[in-house]
Amino acid sequence: MSNPEQLRYSKEHEWLSTAEDGVATVGITAHAAGALGDVVYVQLPDVGDTVTAGETCGELESTKSVSDLYAPVTGEIVEANQDVVDDPGLVNSAPFEGGWLFKVRVTDEPDDLLSADEYTAFTAG
Amino acid sequence: MSDALPENAPPRRTALDSVHRALGATMTDFAGWDMPLRYGSERDEHHAVRTRAGLFDLSHMGEITVTGPQAGELLDYALVGNLSAVKAGRARYTMICDENGGILDDLIVYRLADGRESTYMVVANASNAQVVLDALVARQAGFDAAVRDDRDAYALLAVQGPKAHGVLASLTDADLEGLKYYAGLPGTVAGVPALIARTGYTGEDGFELFAAPQDAEKLWQALLSAGEGEGLVPCGLSCRDTLRLEAGMPLYGHELTRATTPFDAGQGRVVKFEKTTNDGRFVGRDALEAAAERAAATPPRVLVGLVAEGRRVPRAGFPVVTADGTRIGEVTSGAPSPTLGKPIAMVYVDAAHAAPGTEGVAVDIRGTHEPYAVVALPFYKRER
């Protein structure tokens, strides 16, 4: 699955949409979902939580392992995807769409987010 | 996201390596071998084995051949089982222990021939094959028998699941009907010579096929084609682990270790103090007798199953605790169970908390105490 051009990416394999009214949507990439295997449990930050770029804000559990979820930007959580909590398999089946994780009102972002091409090159290496 | 991407190490490759890559398998390093972890969804592969059939490459397993007039006597002495009493064509699940009764490995031993040409094939876990080989060579002195490293002589394919019998039957004239569980016979499958064994590690009916590595690809493709209409799919080690866990089968390095005797692991039945040869002498006997008495009187800990009430998954090494936080045991294997739809675990717990239905047992999952129900093993048993 190719990485959508309009998104930006973290080196921890999250994707981030362009902010609308200051709010960006965050998920994990198809590459990351493929590496995890079937996701069986998702713990997301609560609405109202403040997350900090590069710090853990939840976890993703697959058959074989548990992985920390990192916030790609700093801001306040305005929505968590209840659909993906109820059906964690969405992370595998639709990582860039129905498998999105949370929406965050961005107050700060790191300067090392990657473009789609850069992320594709990053994961190819 | 981190720690999700598998690391690359310089591993050994099986004869089917290019087949796995062509199928797009996710590969993983397992005991020094580059093995298929899964081809697509490990949950789908798991369900395929439970309801239809799955095809596995298990060529990492370590085969050791023991031959000679006293091959049975050697194995009676070197292993905990009574192997000289096994008839040609039959197999046993057994273990090899050290002098202290600690488990060096669990094994399947196939008796291929008896009499003057007595021959056994010992199949060890990949991670322990060298340890087992070294121990057998060390224990061979004084016996008229030879120990041969045959790890590179065989590829091992397994076809497992309720449709396995039909799929295999379409490719061989061998008498599968007459082949009992834990039996093996030499035959021809898809034109390829193979030892056909009715064994497995999934809790389903199934077969394991030992063949020459150069024949492995032909055998694999024939099984895949024959199984196409039956819903057979290639399966990786990830679902093999959840299948064996549901079936309550121990895994070396998890439930079985050198610090554990077979009695501590709830596997005391594999130890045969009454042996046909050597006046019952075998490596570890004295320590195992003491372990048997201890287990019968005051078992220090018991291997039981836990089923989650929540969705967080217990992993090996997580503490098992009571409501007040007292540590009463440890998880040895844990996974989301595709069949039960809930996380499950095998755990060692203090005997006082081991009875099925014991209340107030939890697993400490990264600081949160998640409630679990104590159940008897296995979690899953197929209908016969």
Automatic annotation (TrEMBL), chain A:
Name of the protein in question: Glycine cleavage system H protein
Job description of the protein: The glycine cleavage system catalyzes the degradation of glycine. The H protein shuttles the methylamine group of glycine from the P protein to the T protein.
GO biological process, one term: protein lipoylation
Gene from which this protein is expressed: gcvH
Stretches assigned to the Lipoyl-binding domain: 23-105
Binding partners and assembly: The glycine cleavage system is composed of four proteins: P, T, L and H.
Co-factor binding details: Binds 1 lipoyl cofactor covalently.
Residues annotated with N6-lipoyllysine modification: 64
Keywords tagged on the record: Lipoyl
UniProtKB/TrEMBL annotation, chain B:
Its job: The glycine cleavage system catalyzes the degradation of glycine.
Any one GO BP annotation for this protein: glycine decarboxylation via glycine cleavage system
Protein name as it appears in the record: Aminomethyltransferase
EC number: 2.1.2.10
Domain GCVT N-terminal as annotated: residue spans: 18-275
Protein family membership: Belongs to the GcvT family.
Gene name, Swiss-Prot/TrEMBL: gcvT
Species annotation: Streptomyces chumphonensis
SUPFAM superfamilies: Aminomethyltransferase beta-barrel domain, Folate-binding domain
Recorded superkingdom: Bacteria
Residue positions binding substrate: 208
